[in-house]
Amino acid sequence: MFAAASGCGNKKELKYAKSSVYDADFAVVYSAALDVTRTLYPTLDDNPGPGIIKTAWHQVTYANNQDDLSNQRTIAAGQGMSRGAVSPGAAAAGMPTRLAYKRFFIRFDVSVIGGRPWRVKVVGHASEWEPGNALPTELHGPARPPWLEGRTDALNVAIYKRIKQHAIPMKEPVAETKPEDLIPKTDPKAFKNVPPAAAARLAQIKDALVRRDHVAMRTYLADDIVWSLGGTPGADTAMAMWQADPESLDAMARLIGDGCAGTDKRVLCPGGEPVVGAWQLVLELRGTAWQVASFVKAE
Asked: Which of 58, 223, 248, 279 is the most exposed place for a label (fewest CB within 10 A)?
């Protein structure tokens, strides 16, 4: 009886969560969304300017009940694999199975959009990793796991419960708009002293940094990018280090401006000789595409 009542309550709150907006100051709504998200998924990157919160990938320990909205357990990506991935029979026999080594991950994009009253949008993503793969593969369409919706709903409800005193019914359904689309895009014409194609790439890089779009940012990096004067070059390592220390990416965003200058093969931000103790971003034309070749502090 209690379980049934609890499930009914969850469904009722989920309906309110999906059909409510919040009549409160932006800071109140955003802070609540950030606090709730961080409690459930501790590793994240928040950007209050455009109202975007992006969690890191968290490894999922999932239960058999895929509709359980209270099942939100995650562990850090670097910790052990889920015990739930191994069948009791396989465990008893001591025989590894394919699922014994497969790992699943989840992350969320949470955004506070519109104007007062504010709307909170929660978008969940799932990925899987198998032995031999360098990185997890994001799951789309029919490949999306059935537990993703339940966990997305759980986060939505948790945020709603935190600020439901400010909730009011949404007047009409809101067209699905990516929060990133609400952020003004950088005009390539703002870069005067670089080739047009390099200017377009700088604009894309700056927009990716503002949106915290790490997937797009990775595509703009040369595979042999120098990210540290003492570290081994490599784009994947660079992204991992920068995501762990977002101040580096903030510094890169600040560098991309009127101070960039260069030739038809190489662009520096800022232009000129490197200054000891200061960051410098270097773009190079690799084949037909401009890519970030270096981003380090001069010594």
From this structure: 223
